[in-house]
Amino acid sequence: xxxxxxxxxxxxxxICTSRISQIAALGALAAGREWVYEQVKTLEIGRKAILDAxxxxxxxxxxxxxANCPILSMISSSPVxxxxxxxxxxxxxxxxxxxxxxxxxxxxxxxxxxxxxxxxEAATRLKRGILELTKNT
Length: 137
Known about the structure:
Elements: H1 2-12, H2 19-31, H3 33-54, E1 61-62, E2 71-73, H4 80-91, E3 96-97, E4 106-108, H5 116-134
Helix pairs in contact: 3-5, 4-5
């Protein structure tokens, strides 16, 4: 069920920026580089929490140094669809199956839009979920 809902969400994500996003980007440009750098710094807390949650739990990690969207190779014996659904249903944390972005057999973690305190909470649940779901593999 969660997998089918994720496909629906993934299919409805806009591929072009909306007008409001364009206006926000112009505002950021007008505010200058320092303002942008300050906003980007807020990502570091979440990025570190997510990377700490996944390092050592999965076989290989690609990315995670930009907007905080690492892609992780699976070591679980369960299929990615089942793994992703279990994380949502049992641990309250969402990941995107890698097949959605050209990496079948992997999962993608993307929490860059969360405020730092919520990203920390998501990272805790993600780590707990990954550890639980991979403990017998």
